[in-house]
Design goal:
By secondary structure, the chain is mainly α. It contains seven helices and no strands. The radius of gyration is 25 Å and the shape is flat.
Length: about 140
Amino acid sequence: MKQLIFLFSLLFALTVALIRPNLVFAESVVPQTDIENVEVSLGEKITLKDGSQVQEVFNSADDMVNLLVKVIFVGSGMVLFFMIVGAGFAMITGGSDDKGKAKTTMTTALIGFVIMFSAYWIMQIIQLITGIDMNF
């Protein structure tokens, strides 16, 4: 299988090289000195769904990290919920092998929940002790 993937990728690269040789073998389209002087602010270029720029909504990188952490917590909470529900159904309907797998899944999901719960409250305690508002 690995040889087949390698052969396919090699044939694809050769096809691209034959069709568009300037894409593969071109030394540089833009001189190196111009690349060093280019500066693009992505906050000004990327707009959100409501039309506002990212730079206006997120003043710093930590705002985006806080939002990302919140989204990850919600997503992982949903995954944990579905793992627990799925393991519960497997315990009810499954045979002896399925019950063992379901018990392992349930244990893993509950350990994950305890870790997430602990992480959230540790962040709350750190926020309370230091007085820093982490928007968490």
